[in-house]
Amino acid sequence: MKTVGAIEIRRWSREEYEKMIETNIFPPGTRAELLDGEIFTMTPQKRRHAAAIRATEEALRTAFSSGFDVQVQLPLALEPSSEPEPDLSVVPGSWRDYADVHPSSAVLVVEIADTSLEHDRDCKGSLYAHAGIADYWIVNLTDRRLEVYRDPAQSRRTLSGWTYRTVQYYAPGQQISPLAAPDRRIAVVDLLP
């Protein structure tokens, strides 16, 4: 446990978190995720956010037509203390491969960000880098661009000790290829509502 002044911060394991879900400790309809031992609740989605999820899902399903599963807001069992639910993730295989267990990695993780932009860049970006996710994208609705994070590496400048060395920004008129599908091109405008 981490101590802050006279207060101890209790961190949860993924196993404890999953038991909480199984025993219905969260009220019905609560959207939550476990990030580095802390439980975060997620705010309800605005229409533009939901539209960007659908647009990105459509583009990713076209780019990853076989051998991969595009998951929408489903858990990734990344570490013993983290089970994020990214807006989209692309995992190897089929959904049938994960009927009894959450995927433990992804070839691409995408977050849709408007009010959550800083959290997605810092907290989630560091978490995904630490988990070795090679390709992390943020569909930035505020600035209408795609932020692409690659080359995870250790860093003394971040709280978790991990970051991405390469960050690139793509405008609506540009295209991007996922690392796991380098022969496929996705138009950035197709990710934006």
Provide structural commentary:
The chain has 193 residues and is an alpha+beta fold. The chain has one domain (44-191): Alpha-Beta Complex (tt1808, chain A), CATH 3.90.1570. Helix content is 21%, strand content 31%. The protein contains three helices and twelve strands. The strands form four sheets. It has a six-stranded mixed β-sheet. Strands 1-2 form a two-stranded antiparallel sheet. A two-stranded antiparallel sheet has the order 3-4. Strand 1 and strand 2 (7-9) form a beta hairpin. The longest helix is centred in the N-terminal third of the chain and has 17 residues, at 47-63. The radius of gyration is 17 Å and the shape is globular.
Task: Name the features.
about 190 residues; about 30% strand; globular; 12 strands; tt1808, chain A; single chain
Structural class: alpha+beta
Percent in strands: 25-35%
CA(first)-CA(last) distance: 43 Å
Q: What is the CA-atom radius of gyration, in angstroms?
A: 17 Å
Query: CATH topology, anyone?
Result: tt1808, chain A
The rough form would be described as: globular
Can you give the mean pLDDT? Answer: 88
Assembly category? single chain
Q: What level of helicity do the residues show? A: 10-25%
- The number of helical runs is 3
| Number of DSSP E strands | 12
Q: In terms of per-residue confidence, which ranges show pLDDT below 50 for 5 or more consecutive residues? A: none
Q: What is the level 1 CATH name? A: Alpha Beta
Spell out the helices and strands N to C: EEHEEHEEEHEEEEE
Biggest sheet features:
6 strands, mixed
